Each structure stands twice: as structure tokens, then as C-alpha cells.
């Protein structure tokens, strides 16, 4: 049962990370639309990439925490 729980938690982590990445992209587009300074636009783009990398890193850390729960011992006749 814990393997199912870990899978569900992994799916939740992925969904949460996807929402955060979409928000970072949307924020970046709004900020780029608001400014006329090309250097500022470049900074905004770099900030978005940094945020996405941080989100992906957080997702991997969160999924790694679910790893020990995945260990399931199967007995003969189970499947």
C-alpha cells in the first residue's frame, strides 16, 4: 500500500511543479511585456530559468523522499 501512496505523492509533486513552472513562465511573459529595457528583459528571462531549475530540483528532492516508501517485498504467489 505504501508504494501506491508514494506513486500518488510523486504524481502530486509533479503536478505541483508543473503549476509552478507555468506560473514562472506566465510571470516572465508579463514582466517582459511591461518593460522596454532590453537588459531588464534579459534579466527576467534568466530569472525565469533559475526559478524553473529550482522548481525541478525541489521536485527531485521531494520525490527522493518518497523513495524509501517504494520498497515493497513480494512473496511467492503475489502479483
Structural summary, described in words:
With 79 residues, the chain is mainly alpha-helical. It has one domain (2-66). It is 78% helix and 0% strand. The protein is built from 2 helices and no strands. The protein has helices at 2-34, 38-66. It is rod-shaped, with a radius of gyration of 19 Å. The mean pLDDT is 80. InterPro entries: LEA_1. Residues 1-23 have a biased composition (Low complexity).
What descriptors fit this protein?
79 residues, mainly alpha
Query: Could you state the oligomeric state of the chains shown?
Result: single chain
Structural class: mainly alpha
Major beta sheet, specifics? none
SSE topology string: HH
Question: What is the count of β-strands?
Answer: 0
Number of domains: 1
State the low-pLDDT regions, or none: none
Helix content: over 70%
- The proportion of residues in beta strands is under 5%
Backbone CA Rg:
19 Å
Brief overview:
78% of the residues lie in helices and 0% in strands.
Write the layout of secondary structure elements.
Elements (H helix, E strand, L loop, with lengths): L1 H33 L3 H29 L13
Helix pairs in contact: 1-2
InterPro entries: LEA_1
Family: Belongs to the LEA type 1 family.
GO biological process, one term: embryo development ending in seed dormancy
Amino acid at each position: 500500500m505504501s508504494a501506491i501512496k508514494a506513486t500518488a505523492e510523486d504524481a502530486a509533486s509533479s503536478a505541483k511543479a508543473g503549476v509552478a513552472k507555468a506560473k514562472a513562465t506566465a510571470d516572465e511573459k508579463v514582466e517582459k511585456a511591461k518593460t522596454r529595457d532590453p537588459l531588464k528583459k534579459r534579466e527576467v528571462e534568466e530569472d525565469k530559468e533559475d526559478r524553473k531549475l529550482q522548481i525541478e530540483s525541489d521536485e527531485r528532492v521531494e520525490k527522493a523522499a518518497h523513495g524509501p516508501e517504494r520498497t515493497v517485498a513480494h512473496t511467492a504467489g503475489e502479483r
